[in-house]
User: What shape does this take?
Amino acid sequence: MEKSSNEKKTYRRKVEKSDEEQSDDDDYVPYVPVKQRKQMQLMALGRLTNENSAPKTKSCSEDEHDDEEDEMTWVRNTNVSLLDQHTELKKMAEAKKESARERQLKEEEKILESIAEKKALMGVAELAKGIQYEDPIKTSWKPPRCILALPKERHDYVRKKLHILVEGDEIPPPIRSFKEMKFPRGILSGLQEKGILKPTPIQVQGIPTVLSGRDMIGIAFTGSGKTLVFVLPILMFCLEQETKLPFIQNEGPYGLIICPSRELAKQTNDIIKHYSDWLFKTGSPPIRTCLAIGGVPLSEAMDVVRKGVHIMVATPGRLMDMLEKKMIQLDVCRYLCMDEADRMIDMGFEEDVRTIFSFFKGQRQTLLFSATMPKKIQNFARSALVKPITINVGRAGAASMNVIQEVEYVKQEAKIVYLLECLLKTGPPVLIFAEKKQDVDAIHEYLLLKGVDAVAIHGGKDQEERSRSVEAFRQRRKDVLVATDVASKGLDFLDIQHVINYDMPDDVENYVHRIGRTGRSGKTGIATTFINKTNDESVLLDLKHLLIEAKQKVPPFLAQLQSENEKYLDLGDEKGCSYCGGLGHRITDCPKLEAIQNKQASNIGRRDYLANTTVDY
Assistant: This one.
């Protein structure tokens, strides 16, 4: 058929492409759908196979089929069993999990390195002169031959049976009786009067270690008998010194015990006096001890110092004052014990402790004790110790298993009224803890109005009133003691039935110390804690995991709390946070560390501002 003359013939002109356009075409990669890409990846791994090896052309109608029909051409590789495929997938998941775990641990190591203390816990003179002690102090005490003759396997069996964990070199053997520890008749009689017939786990390993002259870090739950671990050996050392060469006027102390609170220092001093009196009754020379704490006249301590003092029990502030005024000297002091050591360093006494160390004129045996001592404090403390032995009975910061922990949700305005109901749970004596001094006074007044025999102590009261209140409670003349955390660390009250936490403390370590006032010496006690929406979630998470660890009942409002990093809580050897010891978080989320860093940052900014500010007068 011929075309009409009106129609014009059109031609498509061929245009040659430039070099740039040609290179663009060469780099062009056609789009591949996501589903097809996945199938190609699986084919490469050998997990899927194509039933039709020949390329399949599809019509338009076929393209519109459902996905199910599309996937019919792709089936699992029949050469690999389902079990093998499952094993391979599991390995891949574990590898992925392991890499995440390693990343978390590396991040934590970096944080620990960044916050590590640059200055050692040593005296200024020793650091300046580069003095380093290589060997522990030698003592005349040796374990009995019958104990030394026993094989190492026996010692390991005893430690395993009593749940004693030890770290260090040349560890002395555990001894399971006070008589085999070679204590004199006076000490044994004093123990018998107190009803102490056999040593506790921390004493089984701790006392032989201290008597051997070794530096030591002792960690055990509250009420486990840590005080006797350092009190009995120091009495033996002082007795030996006094027998060989009696102390003259203004000489001493030979042993120094530092406590974070006045009440704890007074209690320790009373324990030393009890055993020194029994030694004197059985014909031993007198062992003089003095108490140096704030609120007590200096003349009382100086009267003992003038006669020649063997043991001094002191708080950091008063001790610093006496050293700076040259009222006492540490020239002959060879024994230093820091009770509740982590709390002292944590409470800001670190510089004071370092200054106290600079007053020593020679090597000393150093002992650190606490119920809660995170790895950060342990590593820091080792800088001052010579070949230390770490003795751990239970996890550092763990609550005593003898305490029944009850946590109740109580609104803020209902707390004080609910106290009376809680007091009906058990008979007296009962301890009530509150965070603020005002709350202590308000609770005390309320209980007195309701006819309850109660006394109160806190940092705002003078020392005489504090001592009077503690003695009245200890001697059972009063049924209830209301206190701040000054009564939470180390104090030993006989047969406390019930501890009530009016406030959940901001630090879970303080909680462990508080509830540790009950359930002591193998007896069972109850601890009731009030919580509500005002409490920080991170502290409640720590509390939740502490309850789980102690196999206690977790209330529903705590059980439903979940942390973002729940899967990382049990990484490595250290459970929870390696900085503060909390079980509900890791160091990467530690609120305590964050608060300290924020405080330091604000102080730096403030110092810079003040340094650049001039004042015109």
